């Protein structure tokens, strides 16, 4: 099904405009600290985080719950300015949200009053290009396998389907940076495995940069080229290591098991392993 | 108001008001039909029983003499009796033959209501015309209402249309202004700062208390009436729209903003659709408010309208006319609320489990 979509794309567009040519963003996070000013006083959430993500790189962020991962993603998306430090995209400072950096939030947050199709079309409509690019919505929907559900409303979807719609709503914008906040967290384990492979092939085809937050160590190791482990709040970078395995990866590979042991150790969970 | 609804059930043709309970009664009716279908295929039993009671109502009306007190004489008594008996006869025919022709399905569920209405009419007839337990001129038998409708048809129809027009003017004006105010308050800090205290201060005042002001400042008495109705509608619409817009899930905005949405897009395509369920609650409350000030708004200056008719009838102590107008008013209100429910069900079809009217 996916290859069929690509075939169709090739037919419609001149070779020069091939969408596989999206260039991933270079993200440079330098000395970022962040705190929330609460009534009880300031709550430091990020502590001097520096991270350099190369164009087209797939980076996974691991860390204990509540340490500040989602906050870091919000800063990268430009939804909030950091209290200290700077975040740059291809050398330009990030000051506000931009459709070149699309976030898939922890919660699918589909708009309940829109059909699945209209939800996916959101970004194109917001930028006033929907009438020209309608076919892209259909492509994105078939990519996540939900073409038949184009006319349904979100309350009729399962949690996993809703999360897939959120993913389609993101990739239809052809971002150069895809920010994923536990996008597969709500999927059943089978759909989850299938979506992981789908994510990898999507990334390989398009070439965007990916920042992925996950709780699942195996998921991080299966998907990412590089894994960053955060400490407890306020989050500091505790470790940053490469996953030196070629794609497609095999879940049973001994090297993966080794890295998993390493990562769990960094998270303080090696005793259970 | 409550007396209006009570009386109205005695006269309303079953189709109109019995539509809602029909859905509730239908399942029981279904099972009963299934059980009896073996012995007696296709008699609509509750309809047949209702028909017999209606015929009995006709007989009671015709053959028990009216109580004669003073000069009161109820016209049309014989005609009303014949009419009800005829209706009962037609209903009986429908109940017996209808099922074979497949013509009963839409009304099948309303059988119990038809029975209740017949019984109520009988009681009403006995208490008023026959034994004068409820005395004239404060109470009137059903045939007197029929007489009013026949004699005063033109004036009542005229009043109906004028009230509808006035309500529509006031309601749409108030709803539009209330909606815009609510969106402004919910969205813009500046608008919220200046308008919120005003709404809090003026809103809770009953609109009818502003009657003299409205008449003094308005160019015509019609404009004053529109103003009062708009005020009664606008306040709940504004408050609920405001709270709807203010309580929109922040994440919706984040999603739209990261995808390049402008401020306008956020207002028109995110805030307003997300607030619509609340807006409709406001519209329902606004409609109720509009009804409640209609009579007062029509009390001064206006020369036609149901509220005006009520005041006029009371002034002449012709309570029969008053009841007749009240029934029409109840039908008007109920019809408009049904209409608003219909609009809401269409607009909010994406919501699950919405209440049906
Ligand atoms: N808008 C906010 N105002 C105040 N405090 C906040 C806000 N957002 C997050 N926090 C706090 O910041 C801390 C980090 O939150 P964050 O959502 O970044 O955690 P997380 O690492 O994504 O956790 P999880 O893995 O459970 O999603 C939490 O303690 C949270 O309470
Ligand atoms: Mg999080």
TrEMBL record, chain A:
- Is Nucleotide-binding set as a keyword in this record? yes
Q: Check the record and name the Gene3D superfamilies matching this protein.
A: P-loop containing nucleotide triphosphate hydrolases (3.40.50.300)
UniProt xrefs under SMART domains: AAA (SM00382)
tRNA processing as a keyword? no
GO terms (molecular function) for this protein are: ATP binding; ATP hydrolysis activity
Q: Name one Pfam family in it.
A: ABC_tran
Sorted UniProt keywords:
ATP-binding, Cell membrane, Membrane, Nucleotide-binding, Translocase, Transport
> Can you give the residue ranges of the ABC transporter domain?
27-257
> Of which family is this protein a member?
Belongs to the ABC transporter superfamily.
Q: What is this protein called?
A: ABC transporter ATP-binding protein
UniProtKB/TrEMBL annotation, chain B:
Keyword Zinc listed? The answer is no
Fetch the SUPFAM superfamilies from UniProt: MetI-like
User: Where would you find this protein in the cell?
Assistant: Cell membrane
Q: Which Pfam families match?
A: BPD_transp_1
For membrane topology, the record states: Multi-pass membrane protein
Q: Which InterPro entries match?
A: MetI-like, MetI-like_sf
* ABC transmembrane type-1 domain sequence ranges: 160-341
Give the superkingdom in one word: Bacteria
Record's protein name: ABC transporter permease subunit
Organism of origin = Pseudothauera rhizosphaerae
